[in-house]
Amino acid sequence: MGNRMQRVCFTGHRPDKLVGKMDDAREWLSDQIDKAYADGFTTFITGMCPGIDIIAAKLVIEKRADHPDIHLIAASPYPRFAYNWEDWGEDVRRVASLADLVVNVSDTYTGRGVFQKRNEWMVNHSARLIAYWDGTPGGTRNTVSYADGKIEIVRR
């Protein structure tokens, strides 16, 4: 599935911060995935959380129809993470089943720090970060801050 220089990861808001912005998010992410592919990126990494992670992953899966060389890595914070989501659970499990590779970054849930560990893993295995983020505090800000100076950041 290529090396770090051919990989892009995603970060962004969960559904509660996307109210009224879902269409904009999908359109922007679709454009960014197309641009990344045109730039030679063929492997995309999702963090598997509801919201931007899953929206982006579903778009990557759709784009495989025209670009069979596109790959998806599902970076799960810990095993069985995909079974924790009531509203988005079906989408999360579908993405996990269609990913080329599922990586459990930690062996077990160890508290909120497990998500930052997953975020750092994604950045450390990518050359570009696509961030749909309004600047508010949280995991997305932490990911963007960690990536700053390490890899290219494309931000909405």
Would you mind describing this structure in some detail?
The protein is an alpha/beta fold. The protein has a single domain, classed as 3-Layer(aba) Sandwich (Rossmann fold), CATH 3.40.50.450. 38% of the residues lie in helices and 19% in strands. The chain contains 5 helices and 6 strands. It has helices at 22-38, 52-63, 89-98, 113-124, 139-147, and strands at 7-12, 43-46, 71-76, 101-104, 128-132, 152-155. Strands 4-3-2-1-5-6 form a 6-stranded parallel β-sheet, with helices on both faces. Helix 3 links the parallel strand 3 (71-76) and strand 4. The chain is globular and about 40 Å long.
> How confident overall, as mean pLDDT?
95
> The CATH topology, please?
Rossmann fold
Secondary-structure element sequence? Answer: EHEHEHEHEHE
Helicity, as a percent range: 25-40%
Give a concise summary:
The protein has helices spanning 22-38, 52-63, 89-98, 113-124, 139-147, and strands at 7-12, 43-46, 71-76, 101-104, 128-132, 152-155. With 156 residues, it is an alpha/beta fold.
Key traits:
single chain, six-stranded parallel sheet, 156 residues, Rossmann fold
Sequence-ordered SSE layout with sheet pairings:
Elements (H helix, E strand, L loop, with lengths): L6 E6 L9 H17 L4 E4 L5 H12 L7 E6 L12 H10 L2 E4 L8 H12 L3 E5 L6 H9 L4 E4 L1
Parallel strand pairs: 1-2, 1-5, 2-3, 3-4, 5-6
Helix pairs in contact: 1-2, 2-3, 4-5
